[in-house]
Specification:
Elements: H1 10-15, E1 18-22, H2 27-38, E2 42-46, H3 54-60, E3 65-66, E4 80-83, H4 92-100, E5 104-106, H5 107-116, E6 120-125, H6 130-144, E7 154-161, E8 166-169, E9 175-180, E10 184-186, E11 189-192, E12 201-204, H7 218-229, E13 237-241, H8 245-251, E14 257-262, E15 269-277, E16 280-287, E17 290-297, H9 302-317, H10 322-330, E18 340-345, E19 348-353, H11 358-371, E20 377-381, H12 394-401, E21 406-409, H13 426-435, E22 439-442, H14 446-456, E23 462-466, H15 474-484
Parallel strand pairs: 1-2, 1-4, 2-3, 4-5, 6-9, 6-12, 7-9, 12-13, 13-14, 14-15, 19-23, 20-21, 20-23, 21-22
Antiparallel strand pairs: 7-8, 10-11, 15-16, 16-17, 18-19
Length: 492
């Protein structure tokens, strides 16, 4: 179940159409590479630098990654090139593609053309929770397929779903579950990717200002989501969060049925009796005011309960039996880089979490407080996303990080690429946190951060590493240093 299939013989590979992906190590691009391989393409790719988990996935698939970008990676000439949305004019491979007039597409274009025509498109969108909710919905369909094979889903997820050990699957059945990203599509298409996916049913989790490099303000973000809502046909369904005025505004003019989920008294799918016990969450879902489902899930955090309820609501509305939904959520195993315990060394727990926005950081730290109430909680943050690198959310970031006992802020990633009047000033965050009585400091690089941590962490501490990128290998380097004992403080 969820296994990654390998390509055929070398002779078959030599005869296959050749597709090359520029920027292959992005989460969606790596997943697309695997799907194209299953479709029979010979796949190559390139990137500036490769890092887990997507580099591991591509290695498992035996898909070569050329590093760094070079027009040599386009020899022999591919039949088609997929241009990642992070690739802009000036990239040597893109310039070669344009000069040589090699056919090219965006990721979202190709997904629509190759994989969505004739299928049931089930899209999960929103500022937060997309990846986890997509993984949950795919696992619900996979579980239901045990009794009804026609429900086995194809899926495309912006992360490695642990139940599948993969971020994608391609089946001959109709359901296709995919993460709908609001980020821009390509250098030649600045609209959001999700406008290419034409959902038959849609989950809308949250709508907040994000991606400050491409959206001018919250209104432009809302406009993008309104356009997505406008693509859902009259026969379709939208399941939307009940706790956001922005979400309410975005779905207000939908032509299809809209069902709200959350904690509100009048929600179609209402969460009641929520309790956290150890590593598990327990709650009931009321459907249209009536008892419907008792849920137990081996994950913590109110945000994950909301994600699971949204997935359950969409699945039930599409005809998935309640008992299959219950079984799936009880066995759901999360997503790589979402509250992932990557090491436990001498009583010190190291957590990896994909952090791109102050709200996501807040929910992560709230969940860890519930899970480890007696522990000293460290937040080690790399301002790396195009939103966190800017000063637009300095106040909100301070509020989120104040939930930790110890805060370490790294330097802003590629700070020279941000206009001087927009750049985040970590020292202001540190000063604001210290004023609140929170221990905080800014350190210039990963080596210095590791040195500080190894000298100060103690048994019982929880260290949350928060970044949406490679963070200079800290996920590997910190555990290695702690295991070696180098620079360690004397145990209390």
């Amino acid at each position: 179940m969820g296994e990654i299939q390998q390509p055929g013989s070398n002779e078959q590979a030599a005869q296959a159409r050749h597709v090359h992906l520029i920027g292959i190590c992005g989460s969606a691009m790596a997943s697309l590479a695997g799907m194209l391989q299953l479709q029979g393409w010979r796949v190559t790719g390139s990137d500036k630098a490769a890092y887990p988990p997507m580099s591991d996935l591509l290695e498992q698939l035996h898909i070569p990654i050329g590093q760094p970008f070079s027009e040599e990676h386009l020899t022999p000439r591919p039949d088609l090139v997929i241009v990642g949305n992070a690739i802009s004019r000036g990239n040597p491979e893109l310039e070669y593609v344009l000069d040589q007039r090699i056919p090219f597409r965006s990721l979202a274009q190709l997904i629509h053309e190759e994989f969505l025509v004739g299928r049931e498109s089930l899209v999960i969108a929103g500022t937060h929770g997309k990846t986890t909710t997509t993984s949950m919905l795919a696992w619900i369909y996979e579980t239901a397929a045990t009794n009804n094979p026609s429900l086995a889903p194809s899926f495309l997820i912006g992360g490695i779903a642990e139940n599948f050990g993969s971020s994608f699957a391609l089946r001959p059945t109709r359901p296709f579950v995919l993460e709908g990203d609001e980020y821009d599509t390509a250098f030649f298409d600045k609209g959001p990717k999700f406008l290419h996916y034409f959902p038959d049913a849609l989950i809308l989790t949250h709508v907040e200002f994000d991606h400050a490099d491409i959206y001018a303000d919250l209104e432009s973000v809302r406009t993008a989501f309104k356009r997505l809502v406008n693509l859902v046909p009259r026969r379709g369904r939208i399941v939307s969060f009940d706790g956001s005025a922005n979400v309410t505004e975005c779905v207000a003019r939908a032509f299809c049925a809209v069902e709200r989920y959350g904690f509100a008294q009048d929600s179609a799918w209402r969460i009641v009796d929520l309790a956290i016990q150890g590593n598990s969450s327990h709650w009931r879902i009321e459907r249209a005011g009536q008892p419907w489902l008792q849920v137990e899930m081996p994950m913590i955090g109110e945000h994950n309960v909301l994600n699971a309820t949204a997935a359950a609501a969409l699945a039930a509305g599409q005809g998935i039996p309640a008992e299959d939904i219950q079984t799936a959520l009880q066995s759901f195993r999360s997503v790589k880089r979402r509250l992932e315990v990557i090491a436990e060394i001498d009583g010190i727990t190291i957590i990896d979490d994909f952090a791109h926005h102050p709200t996501a950081i807040r929910e992560t730290l709230r969940a860890l407080r519930l899970r480890y109430p007696a522990s000293r909680l460290w937040a080690v943050v790399e301002p790396r996303s195009n939103t966190l690198r800017r000063n637009v959310f300095e106040r909100e970031l301070t509020e989120s990080l104040s939930l930790a006992d110890e805060v370490v802020l790294a330097a802003v990633f590629q700070a020279t690429n941000i206009p001087a009047d927009q750049i985040l000033h970590p020292e202001r965050i540190v000063q604001a946190l210290q004023t609140r009585g929170c221990s905080a400091r800014q350190l210039p690089d990963v080596a210095t951060i590791i040195g500080h941590l190894t000298a100060n962490v103690k048994s019982g501490d929880v260290v949350a590493i928060l970044s949406n990128g490679g963070f200079d290998g800290i996920y590997r380097k910190l555990p290695e240093t702690l295991r070696s004992g180098q620079g360690r403080a004397v145990a209390p």
